[in-house]
Model the fold of this input.
Amino acid sequence: MANRAFEVARLPGFRTIALTAFVLLYLPIITLVIYSFNAGQSVAVWEGFSLDWYAKAWENEAVKGATYRSLIIAATASAIATTVATMAALGTTRRKAFKGQTAIYVMINQPLMVPEIVTAVALLIFFASIKVATGYTGLWYLIIAHAAFCVPFAYLPIRARLEGMDLTLETAAGDLYASHWQTFRYVTLPLMLPGIIAGAMLAFVISLDDVVITEFVKSGGQDTLPTYMLGQMRRAITPEVNAISTVLLALTVALLTAFFLLTRKNDK
Amino acid sequence: MTTIPTAVEAKSIVKAFGQGAVAIKALDNVSIEIKQGEFFTLLGPSGCGKTTLLRLIAGFDTPTSGKILLNGDDITHLPPNKRPVNTVFQSYALFPHLTVAENIGFGLQMQGRPKAEVTESVARMLALVQLEPMANRKTSQLSGGQQQRVALARALAPTPKVLLLDEPLSALDLKLRKEMQIELKRLQQETGITFVFVTHDQEEALTMSDRIAVMSAGHVQQIGTPRDIYTRPANRFVASFIGETNFLSGQSDGTSVTLANGARLPMSAPQGRVNLTIRPEQLRVVPLGTEGAMPAHVASTVYFGTDTHLHLHLEGGIDIVARQQSPAQGGEAMKEGTPVGVLFAEGALLALED
Amino acid sequence: MSAETDAETRKTRNAWLLSTPALVLLLFAASGPLLIVLTYSFLAPGEYGNVVWDFDLRGWISILYTKDIFDGTYHLADAHLSIFWRSVKLSLMTTAVTFAIGFPTAWFIATRPPAQRAFWLFLITIPFWTNLLIRTVAINEVIRNEGLLNTFLIWLGVIAEPIRIIYTDTAVLIGMAYVYLPLMVLPLYAAIDRFDMRLLEAGYDLYASRGQVLRRVILPIVKPGIVAGSILVFVPSLGAYVTPRVLGGGKNMMIGNFIELQFGQGRNWPLGAALSMTLLCVVMVALLIYVRAANKGDNQNG
Done:
């Protein structure tokens, strides 16, 4: 065809910019992943494939400890956040507007609105005084702090799931002789489960990724993987950091893919 | 003659939404008796209160005042899961996480019936609605008509005393709707269960029901068999809502009525001004000068296939529509302006309340 | 009718009851401590950090003014002002850059066939959820003196010596634009996705050129999305901590790093608290603008 059809939605140059944006978005990440397999010390010169840096990171006691703490904190915090978020979502959705509804929404979404550095500073001050008063310096400060900022991330998908749910399904269950508890157990809960799992996964990822609040709240020797990496970066960046990044990245991508498949399947 | 016992009785039901001055009465002193084994239809335009009444019978709402009786027992304040009444929802409300068979067995399971009984009952229901091959499908994989059948089977499985159907056919296309009308009627006759059917479709109501309650603005306008309601509408609303009709007004002296064109027709009606109605098919268009015919001329004709509507001008400013069979092939439609005579079929002119 | 009112009251009570654990957690570890920060901003600094419980406005005053050591008079604190100015300037520039790249990207995604859209969106979402630190490390690898960019340019022969980008404002700008780009694309996509493409046909039918359609039809209608994206980028940029720390080095501080400094080496907790409150207020104002724009957008579309 000599004449290209007039595409209404085409805007000149947009496609080029967009594709460039995707390349720019992924180029650094891919570079980082590739160089984590570099045999040499350098993060610039390719000296052949090796898994040395992964081995090195794995043998590093500090990394092991940080990995362990990251996972413990993320698992516990996301479990707490998901539990309280599920309850809150059940309480606040699918009803007429009620007194204080906005207040609850604002409270729950507060961690999304307040700059992390401000929360970090606030928790630093607050927990410092508790540490002095109680003498307890364990992981629970970090777990509680993480659980708090994970709440909105767990709450939003659960709420979305509940609001997308047909209310007549529960009416129908009641009509078919189900008690309130049976209705919840056999209809509401199974239907909201994908939302709960999605919320828990997001909360887990968010907790795993946190740098700022952890950096301020942690006591000595309580590095998580991200804060360990941040500490390492004061010196020269080594491929070890790349290796840790790659592992974290893989974990995030895996969880996100699962999240997408989970929410997409249930959109039907 | 044995009297058929009453299945559902609504006694002076008032249902108001909102409070105080802004309260809206969705139902205003409604009383209805539904007989056992009856196919009873609540018919009316949207917002007339028919669905509200259905929800009160199901137990999803409680009336502001009045009572709901089931087989003579007061169930007004019984929660829905304690009522032997099941509903087919407008949206079907099939559980998306359960299979067809699990959906159908849900009610029986919730009642704690033994497994064997549930399995047996589900199989019987699947056969009844002819969905055996679909038993283990998810409901989202079914067509609209099939989902409709599952909803029916699910509501029938616990053998309710009364089955409530809330505009169950409104989501189906015309052809499927016709099929399901027949299917519903068959199911009702096979099971012998009392059906309370809500619809805004007058044709659906006329073809399926044993009796119809026509509702409007929170009131029952008329209760009767389809024939009663069509041929003897109690008031202007019923006459206009069911089928097509002509409205006239006249002056009654008790034994005859005088129309605006001066024609005097014998009929008994209360003295004074009366509102009259006559169905288009009860008008006969005859050559001008036929004995007893009122003079008129054709204003326009509208072709409907089997029928043709003739819009007629009578003297005294009366406009009226007559329905005639369309002329056979080769026949000519009447031209505009053609002078004709009009006869009213005997007894077809009715005086209306209000 | 009273039965209905009772039911409503019970439902409301249930709502609060069920929300209580979440609210307690957030009050304890998110909102409550902010009040402590507010309180601390009105106290006197302790010698080794922490505070002395005396009412003192110096925390707030020293945001803008420094006390002359010799004559005790107050002067505008140039160092502080330059940090604020850098923060605002870099945040605005980040917003502009992400919009310039993000709008065509969002448009591109929204005009893909529906089956492909999820895939492109997923490509935007992965970086969005990927650890900010990892992304900062990744961009650092690219713009370092011995990084990918310089190595490539030298190999091409365009430059002989590496360009020094790292530890400059430019590095922070590139880094923030990189890490916050998804935050711009996602709301823009949401707005464009709702945009009725038939309006374009109407525009062209009425003799508009592509440029005119863009300016007179598309941009005004997707404006709520533009506002949303801009705020979503501007707010975290203003409070950024990790990116300026890693890419800006010690000198090119932004407010976030400046606040940390007060709780670290600076040992001026009241100033840090006052700065935190100031940042919070600016962010809240930006969010209010966002909420108003979002509501307006809802009204337009509903």
